[in-house]
Write a structure and sequence with these properties.
heterodimer; A: mainly alpha; 54% helix; B: 403 residues; Peroxisomal Thiolase, Chain A, domain 1; 2 domains; two-stranded antiparallel ribbon; 12 helices; 16 strands
Chain lengths: 89, 403
Amino acid sequence: MSEQPFTLDDLKRILVEAAGADEAAPLDDDILDTTFGLLGYESLALLETGGCIEREYAIALDDDTLSDELTPRELIHTVNERLAAARAA
Amino acid sequence: MTAVAVTGMGIAAPNGLGAADYWAATLGAKSGIGRITRFDPSSYPAQLAGEIPGFEAADHLPGRLLPQTDRVTRLSLAAADWALADAGVDVAAFDPLDMGVVTASHAGGFEFGQDELQKLWSKGSQFVSAYQSFAWFYAVNSGQISIRHGMKGPSGVVVSDQAGGLDALAQARRLVRKGTPLIVGGAVDASVCPWGWVAQLAGGRMSDSDEPTRAYLPFDRDARGYVPGEGGALLTLEPAEAARARGATCYGELAGYGATIDPPPHSGRSSTLRTAMRTALEDAGMAPGDIDVVFADGAGVPELDRAEAAAISEVFGPGRVPVTVPKTMTGRLHSGAAPLDVACALLSMRAGLIPPTVHIDPCPEYDLDLVLYQARPATLRTALVLARGHGGFNSAMVVRAAQ
């Protein structure tokens, strides 16, 4: 189990792996508070992204966590909550 | 009835990527058949394929599309882009409901599906990509082309193996005639992966020769099966009058179409291919003597070759029409083969040259005027393209130079 927090860099790496990179809209630090919907990640891309995070970090995300209205900051926060809960368990 | 014109073509073939490369290779009798490189074929009885070299998907498609696409979809998306660019079509100038996509497919995205099935059994269901829900599917090429270009009009997919490529063009032609101003139609197939390979081996008609120049020999005394390949062509179809009005260059028209199903094997009844040919001629308002060249299906299986040669001789008279099988340079591309032959026929008309059938020493009893060894100069206004699919599908299409 990783002791490191889940960071924006981790999310960006997984987004590229799960949904590919968009040359026209690079993933930079400004994306933290933009919704995934506005970033161009549709439901299936988010499903695949969530699946990658679950596999790599051995946590489970709720089905309704991943929505178009979610922002990267919120997702990072949720993942870190789950990681902390898993470590405490 | 509305004349339906071909205004653009996108080609991906084992002997040429893009229309210019493909046409130069085809005229030069350059074959794309060789030992499989995409996987190690050592343990399989058939080891040759027509593979497309040098296609780097990332050079042609946005990164967002790569994780969710099989090779066949990447090739299809590139070919559709090329066809639209060739036609000089600005999709933004069309109402989305005025544009549609009709493709054919024989296997869908088998390589993607194979990878995901391997993850399923080796790691577990949570490792299977969410994109598996559509990336393997027969209709995926129509869907992805439609999404990429915002084409929301009538669309679909046809599955009838090698005949499917003509059936898709025929459906595209119907849709244009019913009033849709622009359809991307045709097929690109690609399933050179172990799963696709064993599925085809089970059919029992693949050549087990390991000599690239002697493996796929339609109409030859030594015919011993077919070599599969990957690729095909997508075409843009528009009402001829509207295309001319917008200043488009027309390669030619899809003038006639006919399709039949063969009687069951061992029924004792003969192939209905000749009926498909006659129906296509009738649909085009033409007599056999009006056809300048036949692009044969060329199964490479003796009994199928015999039936096709007999049908051609019966409709046209023995040796009365030049016949060619340029797919001897690509292998059989399943649904992709016939749209590639339609594109090839249109390029032949433009150049005044019938491309050759390569590697063949023809059976004399077939009574065919095969164009062998090198391209033959000819004045070409019309061509008949034939395609036969596994399961008894026969399709025929008359292609005519632009009026």
